[in-house]
Design brief:
13 helices; binds guanosine-5'-diphosphate; 18 strands; Dna Ligase, domain 1; binds manganese (II) ion; 4-stranded antiparallel beta sheet; Rossmann fold; D-amino Acid Aminotransferase, Chain A, domain 1
Length: 382
Amino acid sequence: MNIHEYQAKKLFENYSIPIPEGLVAATPQEATKIAAKYDFKVVVKAQVHAGGRGKAGGVKLLSSSNEIESFSSSLLGSNLVTAQTGKTGVPVNNVLVEKMYDIQREIYLAIVLDAFSKSIICVASEFGGVNIEEVAEQYPDKILTVHADPILGLQPYKLRLLAKKLNINSDLIRPFTALISNLYKLFCDKDCSMVEINPLVITHDNQLIALDAKINFDDDSLFRHKDLFDMRDKDQEDKRETRASESSINYVKLDGNVGCLVNGAGLAMATMDVISEGGATPANFLDIGGGADEDKVAEAMKIICSDPDVNKIFVNLFGGILRCDVAARGIVQASKETNIPPIVVRMLGTNADEGSQILLESSLDVKLIDNLDDARKEFSNS
Ligand code: GDP
Ligand code: MN
């Protein structure tokens, strides 16, 4: 689950991480009223669950009441499209109005779960700011990492070394290491999968401030963080992803046109690889999850078909607890409520023959295959 920048900054505040002065506004009038407190020298920032706002015109430094009112009203109620959103963008229902700071340096700082080292790592760069992706690509050695010990955490001596490598002035080393330790505590307490501050700035008057804030929580831990539920903003989520999560289906919208209906996350990843190897692009990741019945399969199929980009579907199922005949009946059930484009079906395992028979006898446009090499060929000209 994602939250907005202003919500993340509230959590930062609880963990003594310094944030800019400011407040969130839902109307241009509110925005101007907040700005008045800072003599109208403010930064107005679109609150959306996506980065890249700066480059997309969602963040602006302003210095008059008129500018603030007109920029806020152009943002509020609109959709912001950034490099991290789809074509239609995400709705801006709030703006954050913050006091403007004079920036001396922009640092990149994040704590993330690292799959390679199977540990929590701190990532930092002295070239923070809106171009961090380019820095990571062109100067990978400018991205520094510190591994957290599973018991001892991010040890202070490692953080002091990091501060040195980032050329942090000696008088800011203590606040800098304290900030990372607090961020690490927040990361662990709230079961985050990512916390990111980009940029963490040093102002001209030598203050360290988290100018931006991004937090991602591990969805599987949310049951023990009821307080975080209130921060969820479904408006920012893909409608199909929200609908899928309500039925415990793992669905992630992607850019392509081949819908995928699969049981098991690993098989779902392999399925997408096969489609891509063929030369086509998957329209979604979908893992139907454990304990699926006919209704759940039907719901998954309906979600896939509600995506206007989908014009072909790959059903790749390994019948185990979910029997193939049950899955097939689910697909037929869905076809009574929605139009299903041509489907390529690979069914193996429990009751595979029965499942295949049900699909062949239906009115669906079905092509049965039994190996992944044939699947690759099926998607070589989609
Ligand atoms: P993002 O593009 O979505 O990551 O949005 P950010 O919150 O990171 O803002 C983008 C950029 O706006 C930052 O990297 C800063 O360069 C700039 N910015 C934001 N707030 C201030 C501020 O108070 N003063 C100055 N000078 N620049 C700011
Ligand atoms: Mn940022």
